[in-house]
Structures are given as C-alpha cells and as structure tokens.
Amino acid sequence: MKSGSNLEKVLTSGQFAVTGELGPPKNADAEVIRTKARLLKGCVDAVNITDCQTAIVRMSSIASSVILMEEGLEPVTQMTCRDRNRIAIQSDLLGASALGMKNLLCLTGDHHKFGNHPNAVGVFDMDSVQLLQMVKNMRDEKVFQCGEELKGTEPKFFLGAAANPFADPFEFRALRLAKKVVAGAQFIQTQLVYNLERFAAWMEAVRDLGVHEQCYIMAGVTPPKSIGMAKYMKNNVPGLDVPDEVIARLKGAKDAKKDVKEEGINLCVDIINQVKEIEGVAGVHIMAIEWESAVPEIAKRAGLLPRP
Amino acid sequence: MIVGERKPIQEIVGMLKGMKKVLILGCGGCVSVCSAGGEKEVEILASILRIDRKKGGEPIETIEKTLPRQCDTEYLEGLKDEAGNYDAILSMACGVGVNYLADMYPTTLVFPALNTSFMGVSEEQGVWSERCAGCGDCVLDRTGGLCPIARCSKRLLNGPCGGSQNGKCEISPNVACVWQLIYDRLKGLNQLEKLKEIFPVKDWSTSLHGGPRKIVREDLKL
User: Residue B144: CB partners within 8 Å, gap ≥ 6?
Assistant: First the structure.
C-alpha cells in the first residue's frame, strides 16, 4: 500500500469500489461542501473533489478536501496542470499530504476557453502523464521534479488518472492508458460511460495489453437528470459519447408520463450492472454533480451498499 | 514567416492623436509577404489616416517609406538623419521592427500599426496559420514533424487528450487536433512506437520563460 487510503484498501482487497464526486462552490461557503458531503456519506468509498472543473473559479480542491475530511469522508483530491506550474503543484501537494489527503487524481485540466476566465494564461507546464511521473517520483524516489532530494516526509498519495475510451483516435486510447500506468497511475476513472459497446471494446484492448492487472479501472457514470441534459452532453461536451438510445429511453419515459429523473437513475443503475460484468472493471465513479442526492439511491439499487 | 495583422484604424488614430507629421514605415520582410505591412499597406494606411484627420479638422502630414527589413541595424541606420524630423514613426513591421526602432532612436516616439500574430504559413490566398512557437528546443523529430507546442491547445507532449474527437480539438470544431495528425502521420510512417514512450517534462528555459533570448555566433562576428 502506498497511501493506506480507504479507497486503496477497498480496491486492493478486491472489492468493487465506489467513488462519488463533489464540485466545490463558487464562493467561500464551507457549508455547501458539508451539505453535499452528508448526502454522499456511507454510499461511497471516497469522493473526488474537482479542481476548478471546466476552468471556472471555485473553492480550491485542497481546501474543499479538508472540509470534506472534517465531515468524515475521504477525498480524491484532483490536481490539474492548467493553473499551476511544477513549482506550485509540488508545493500544493506537500501541503495536501500534510493536511491528510491520500488520494490524488492527476489531470491535465479542461482548457480555460470553456471557463469564466477565458483570457487567462493556460499554464500547462506539464501534462497529466508527466504530473503522474513527478508525483510518483516524489513518493517513491523522494526527489523533486528537478532531481533534488526530498528530505524528510514525502507525500504518500494513491495515484489516479483519467481515461477517455470515447475520444479519438480510438486505437491509441488503451496505449495512452498504459502510458499513464507506467507513469504512476494506480487507479483510473473513466469518462462517462453511455456507449457500452465502445467501452467494452476499449476494455478488451486494455486487457490485451494486460493493463487491467496493473491498475484499478473505475467506470465513470452519471444519471442524466433530463432529456435536455442528455442532449447537451451528446452535442456540446467534447469527448462524450451519448448514443441516441439513451435519449430515446428518456423520451420514452416522458411519453409514458413517467418521471424522467427516475428513468435517469434506472439508466445509471443499468449501466453500473453492465460494466460490473466486464472483466477488469474494479469499480464505478458516480458523478452526480449538483444532484448528489441521487447517489444513495443509485448505490442502493445497484447493490453497492453497504460500503466496507 | 512572422504573420501580422493591422490594428483597427481607430486604435491607430488614437495613438497618433495630436501628432502632425508622422513617418509611416513599412517593412519588406514577412509582413510584406502576408500583406499586412508592406509598401502597398503603407500607402493605404497613410491615405486612410489623412482622410480621417482631415475630416476631423486636424490634418496630418504622412511620409511613406518601406525598408527592406526593420529587423536589421543596416537598414534602420538609414533613418538617422531624419528620425528627429517626425512627431512619431508608425511602424508597420512586426513587433521586432517596432522594438528595434525604439532601441535605435531613443528620442523618437515609435508606435505599432500591426499586431504580431504568430509564426506560420500561408495556406492559401488570405489564410495564414500557426506552425511554430519558437520554444528554442525543437521536438519535431519525436512528433513526426508536427508541433504539439504550437498546435496543441494545451501544449501536451503526451497527447492526444480526452477532448480529441473526430480529428478536432476540444476548443473548437475549426481547430484540428494535432495529436490526431501526429498519430496518423506516424502510423503512415510505421513509427507508432514513438508514441509509446513517455515524453519527459519540457525544459521551458529556452522558451520565453528563461528571459529574453540571444544568440552570439563568434564564428560569424567581424
């Protein structure tokens, strides 16, 4: 065990892991984190805390992680390369570790063009693969990126990365995952799975490389809250693959005068049940941003409760 | 070449407010080739400025000149006898020319008429696009000759990121994903193995981040 985090324990023990996600507020109100945290408590093994997702200024992921820990939950702190250079990242990570954070998700970060400060400098001193390598070396070799020895306590993170089986070129996606694992990724959270056929094909390519045995792959899922949200994800979110059947299913529910949100939860549970059957899938990452209250129901119906 | 684009007229008019005699100085180098700051553009800009000022009741005298290049001591020195005669020099060169004029003529006001856009190619008549970011440490041997620094929106060295779809970059359907292009090219060249290696963190000290850059070639100095 590298970090001794709860998530690492669950995954290494071979149990099917569940993580949630919490987006910090666009203000300084700790209560927002606390309220969302209480909705997720007991339903997940750890909670991702996003680092200014979609490049919108929010409470920092490290500060939000501290508040989450105060509520008795374990964070997966996200760190992107968009806003910090290697000096700032290493400094923040020493701090995060000192504050008790044990899981780290290393990302390149959404381009700032999508955010509320599109005129900012995009730092991108390094990319996610290089970030993984740097943090792994800080932990295992006790060296900073520059090669200087890290004297004293090293940051001990369980290292995670993202993978998008739905981006192009498809043939390279499993290889890119393999690169991230070589660089230091121990667990992987994927982009939202709606296209199960493509996800299964990607997992097959991952298995062919044997990478599923070198890391824990968690499938990303999100319950669509409305037909509009599903359509938006299909048409406006780069790197997302939402098949027409998903939208048709939600429409069908609406036409039958059923609750669309309820159908969204059913759909999410169905996807979880299907990815669970795929060899090499070690858990699910349930991203119900701004709909955290759906997570307990999803976890319950998917037979994921109680958590260890 | 260095590609530039003329600033909006009103911005230029604002810079020259109160000036009565201005040298409008074109450059016969890159900006001439990209039709932004050559002899023809000098003529057009001078005439627009004169009309504008005349309309406002404050006429301006414009002197038009175009040097073979504004990035060379040899050509800029030619202005030494006249630089003091103008209220200002409006340079239609890239930022390099503007800077060098300012360096050489400390008591003459110098203004830029162009925005220096990028180092790029002329794809077709009227279309230019970026190809090199001048990072000072070329990586093109590892990426099939296509630059991820200049052409990837996140300057990824281990791309493509999760935002690459249908050959396009996540920032716009009008921007090609250079990592898709790199992948396709290396595949065609039977060199996909190159993409399996992890590209280490880049040394940005050779880029702007190491301070202003300078090259001295002792073998060429007189």
Answer: B182, B185, B186, B189, B191, B194
Instruction: Determine the residue among B153, B158, B183, B184 to mutate to test chain A binding: the one whose Cβ has the most chain A Cβ atoms within 10 Å.
Output: B158
The pLDDT value recorded for residue A290 is: 86
Which residues from chain A sit within 8 angstroms of residue B202, using beta carbons? 126
Mean pLDDT of the residues in chain B: 97
Per-residue pLDDT tens over the stretch A123-171: 999 999 999 999 999 999 999 999 999 999 999 999 999 999 999 999 9
pLDDT on residue A289:
82
Enumerate residues 62 to 101 of chain B having a beta carbon within 8 A of any beta carbon in chain A: none
**Residue A259: partners with Cβ closer than 8 Å, 6 or more residues away:** A253
The greatest distance separating any two alpha carbons of chain A, rounded to the nearest whole angstrom, comes to: 65
Q: What is the mean pLDDT of chain A?
A: 97
Q: Do B154 and A108 touch (CB under 8 A)?
A: yes
Quick check: A168 and B177 CB within 8 A? Answer: yes
Chain A residues with CB under 8 Å of a chain B CB are 81-82, 86, 108-111, 113-114, 122, 124-130, 133-134, 145, 162-164, 166-169, 172, 175-176, 178-179, 182-183, 191, 238-239
* pLDDT tops 90 at residue B151: yes
Sequence-distant (6+) residues with CB within 8 A of A230 are A224, A242, A246, A247, A250
pLDDT band at B69 (very low <50, low <70, confident <90, very high): very high
The CATH topology of domain A6-224+278-301 is TIM Barrel (3.20.20)
Q: For A133, which residue in chain B has the nearest alpha carbon?
A: B200
CB atoms closer than 10 angstroms to residue A44: 29
> Looking at this protein, which amino acid is placed at residue A153?
T
Domain ranges of chain B: 2-118, 133-209
Global ipTM = 0.95
Contacts with A, B 143-182, CB within 8 Å: 153-167, 170-171, 177, 180
Q: What is d(CA A154, CA B197) in angstroms, rounded to the nearest whole number?
A: 27
pLDDT at A238: 81
Whether residue B160 has a cis bond before it, omega within 30° of 0: yes
Q: What's the CATH number for B2-118? A: 3.40.50.2300
Q: CB distance A238–B170 less than 8 Å?
A: yes
CA distance A14 to A91: 33
Contacts of B107 (CB under 8 A, 6+ apart): B84
Q: How many CB atoms lie within 10 A of CB B106?
A: 8
Question: Three-state SS for B133?
Answer: coil
pLDDT of res. A236: 87
pLDDT confidence of residue A223: 97
Put simply, the answer to whether A127 touches B167 (Cβ < 8 Å) is no
